Structure formats: structure tokens, C-alpha cells
Amino acid sequence: MPVVSPEKLVALQQHAEGIRNDHGKTSLADALIATNGIISAKLAGKIRYLDSRPDEQLRGITMESSAISLYFSMSKRATAQEDPVQREYLINLIDSPGHVDFSSEVSTASRLCDGALVLVDAVEGVCSQTVTVLRQTWIEHLKPLLVINKIDRLITELKMSATEAYIHLSKLLEQINAVIGSFFQGERMEEDLQWREKVEERVATAAARVHQKAERKVATDAASMASDELETVVSNGVDGEFEERDDEDLYFAPEKNNVIFSSAVDGWAFTVRQFASLYEKKLGIKRSVLEKCLWGDFYLEPKSKRVLGSKHLKGRALKPMFVQLVLDNIWAAYEATTGGNKGKG
């Protein structure tokens, strides 16, 4: 991509509807900066462009949040029949520290953002700072996107097969969603406690009225009427029954297009939607269907090109579609370029 002029960035800055604010990690930030021609793509992940302090470069960690405005354009179709329309955006990216000692920088950056890129190392998994960052996005009501980074380490360091990597990534996703679930349960328990306190307060108030009316003996049936009032409060609560809330939309799931698989150091990333678009014509299956089937216990029947669930395998040793259509291709690319386990390349 050619270098975008300052005038162009200033012009985009004037249109708030085309601006996105996110925070991420330094290697990914380098890769994004390289798309604007500011640094070479070969230096992405090595130069640590946003680590401007000498001690940050020396220690190899981010200690202060740094921001940069990046130009981004994409083609979007309103409907499948219409021609794509070019849309331009200005992304205000904040690279925040990942070390637990600099959590204040993360909380400050999160208050400036519309969304967050939460990076998790595919090998290291969920760490203490991962929980801290997820909690911060929860508190600030940010829209998080999960980036499972360093997928290349599963190939080059752990020497996993594509199937083993899929199982590993599935477990990692479950761990991350368990953290989100703990936040949700904690919030619901607090809301339930507040609701019960209000109910008890209303019951106590109604009981006091019963006692007052009984003492004054305003009318013969005053006590029975007040008792009816008390019973109504107990049965109805403050605002009726405590309403349960659906938590399905809170979790990360590749089929919801809120999970990105990446290798920032090698300069690639993808979502399930992108591979669904690639295979749509080849398999003759709608993209919307592929998006739901490319992750999970779904299998592709080689001859009929039909998508099967785990119940319809009938003992056949088929690979999950994510392994067959996605990971196998990535593994093949790494084996061709680095030699993989064969020592070639």
C-alpha cells in the first residue's frame, strides 16, 4: 500500500463515522503499520515502531501506551447482487503494555476506545494479564475481538499436527470463554442480590404498614387489606420476577466472526468468514452456511461435498472442516517454506 499523505489522514479525521479506535500489541501493531507503508513489512515485529522509549527497545517490552492513526479501505456490498462500494476508515490504534505492572496504561487506553483487540499467545494461553485485560473490556463495555496470535509456534516449536493444533485451540477458546463467563456470573449474582434487597425493603415497608393499620384500628378489615398488600409485594417483588439474561452473545466463537487467528511476526491473519468466502464457489455451499460449519464438529464428505455432523460419521475417520480446509493448508505452506518436520526448505 502506498504511503498515505498527512492531508488524507486529516480529511478522514473529520468524518467520525469512518473512525475506529482499538488497542492491541506491538508485533501486531507493526504489521498494521506496515500496511500503510510507514515501515517495511519485513521489519514488522522486529522494529517495534511504537516502542519509542530507549528502555522499551532495550528491555523488549511496552511500558507506555502509544497511539497512531492508520488508513484502511475495504470494499463492501449492501447485498449480494450489488456492486462493491469502496469504504475508507481511519483507525486510531493504541498499543498498550502487556505486562501486569503497567495495567494502569491499559485501563487509561480502554477509556478512549470503541473496541479492543485482545491478544492471546496460542502457546502460552490465558495468563494473569489476559484476565486483567478482559475484565477491563468488560468494565468499560468495549466490543472485544479475540486475536489468537503466534499460531506459527504450534508448527515450528511444538511440532503439532494440524489436528492436534485444532484440539489445542478449542481448549484455549474454552478457557478464555470461561473467564468471560465468570464475569457474567459475578455480575448476575450482584444484580440478584440487589433485587432481593429491594424486595426485602418493600416487604419490610408493607409489614410496617400492616402493623400501623392494625394498631390504629381504622377499620375492621384494615388488617386483612394490609395483609393482602403484603402478600402482593412478596409475590410480585419489586418489578415482577428476577429476569434471566441471555449470555450467548458475550462469548468468543469463530463462527460469530469475533475470533482472529494470526501470526503477527509472519504477517498473516484470518477469520472463518474469509475462508468461507474462498470455498463458497468451490464447494457450492453458501458462505453463511460455511461460516457456521468451518468451526466445530462438522465434517466434509469428500465425494458428495456434503457437510456432516459428528452423529453421521458412521465410523469414518474424517477430519473436522477447520482442519481439512484451513489448518492443513497453513501447515502445508510452512512445510514448503521452512521444511516443517522434514528438515527441508
Largest sheet: 4 strands, mixed
Number of helices: 11
List SSEs in N-to-C order: HEHHEEHEHEHHHEEHHEEH
User: Structural class, from secondary structure content?
Assistant: alpha/beta
Averaged pLDDT = 82
The amount of beta strand, in percent, is 15-25%
How widely separated are the two ends? Answer: 29 Å
The geometry reads as globular
pLDDT < 50 stretches: none
In what order do the strands lie side by side in the largest sheet? 4-5-6-7
Give the total of beta strands.
Answer: 9
> What level of helicity do the residues show?
40-55%
Rg is 27 Å
Account of the 3D structure:
Strand 2 (66-76) and strand 3 form a beta hairpin. The protein has 345 residues and is α/β, with parallel strands linked by helices. The protein starts with 5 loop residues before the first helix and ends in a 7-residue tail after the last helix. The mean pLDDT is 82. The protein is built from 11 helices and 9 strands. 45% of the residues lie in helices and 16% in strands. A 4-stranded mixed sheet has the order 4-5-6-7. The protein has a 3-stranded mixed sheet with strand order 1-3-2. Strands 8-9 form a two-stranded antiparallel ribbon. The longest helix has 55 residues, at 162-216. The chain has helices at 6-13, 26-34, 54-59, 103-110, 128-139, 152-156, 162-216, 222-236, 272-283, 287-293, 321-338; strands at residues 19-24, 66-76, 85-95, 115-121, 143-149, 259-263, 268-270, 298-300, 307-309.
